[in-house]
Amino acid sequence: MFRKRILSAGIFLVVLLLLFVSLSQGQVPHTVLGMVRDDNENIPPANDVTFAAFLIDVSDGGVQSETRSNYDTGNAYGNGVMGEGWFELECANFTQFEWANGDSLRLAIANATNDQLLILSIPLDAAVEPQLVQTLHLQPFLQNLNAMGSDDQVRVVWTLHQTAPHLTFHIFRSTAEEGFYQKLNAEPIAPDQQQQCIYTDYQVSNGITYWYKLGLAEFSDSLSLFGPVSATARTDVAQENDFSGPTSYQLFQNYPNPFNPRTTITYQVPQSSQVSLVIYNLLGQRVRTLVKATQQSGCYQVDWDGQDEWGNSVASGIYFFRLSAGPYTRIRKMTLLK
């Protein structure tokens, strides 16, 4: 009973404090509260967790507001009025339009230290103040994140857990692990059907080590960035792995796709294997053998220039590339557009 009274008093103080802040901003106050736990029911440390959110105006066709984060006045995780393990957000921070009953709060909470994430939508209820949501459980979402350097390029590859929500990414780069990270891509990167993403950075110089992080595009990269990983662009391609060796066979989607006239295919093998990588047309006819060799454990990149075995440029259309390595066989589809 005593603890309940303390909790009630804490919520009352939150309301009074945020009411004062909100009225000064000219927006109707509304506080959203919730406990945050990781996938083992532990309280994530305050320094590891960030959150970002935006409003969706349901009555106006889904117009989105600006994105706000735990750094805005009245917002907090772990160091607010409610204390350790509590998320607190004030709707008065959103100034693009005034929230209304029934609008939706799109929320992302992340722990970039252990690659855990939760994304959900919360219908706003003006009749409840403060609005208490169910316990927010973070879940693992990033399965791996690797960077590979070769001649005049670095390729960043990451895989999401199969249960991860639909996400798109911006990629950020720095020349120092603790330095300033600059966004590289304007168009967000979406995972393929296997929950894999690839980004190739061609704006590099051989001999320089680059650091990369991931940002969630939907939330304007306002969350902590995930990573970093590093790789050095260099000409000794035979030693192009800058991370511990892969643990599984994988054939990644080619990039770019569609392409003209050149595309890059990336794959990995976990142990020494007899490898073949072959291009086929829609009729199942062999067009080009790109790889036929024994290769050691590692991640490899092979370019296809849109030519057949005899150096003739092939026609526009759909093609297939097939990787056979040890017990593993995988076929993917790509499109050549001229």
* Beta-strand percent range: 35-45%
CATH topology of the largest domain: Immunoglobulin-like
* CATH architecture classification name of the largest domain: Sandwich
CATH class categorisation of the largest domain: Mainly Beta
Radius of gyration: 24 Å
Estimate nothing, just give the exact number of structural domains.
3
Number of strands: 25
> How would you describe the oligomerization state of the chains in this entry?
single chain
How many helices? 1
Helix content: under 10%
Please identify the structural class as seen in this structure. Answer: mainly beta
Mean pLDDT: 85
The largest sheet is: 6 strands, antiparallel
Distance, first to last CA: 73 Å
Instruction: Write down the overall geometry.
Output: elongated
Sketch the topology as an H/E string, one letter per element.
HEEEEEEEEEEEEEEEEEEEEEEEEE
What ranges have pLDDT less than 50 throughout 5 or more consecutive residues? Answer: 1-7, 18-26, 237-244
Description:
7% of the residues lie in helices and 43% in strands. It is mainly beta. The protein folds into three domains: 2-139, Sandwich (Immunoglobulin-like), CATH 2.60.40; 141-243, Immunoglobulin-like; 244-338, Immunoglobulin-like (Sandwich). The strands form six sheets. Strands 2, 3, 4, 7, 8 and 11 form a six-stranded antiparallel sheet that branches. The chain is elongated and about 70 Å long.
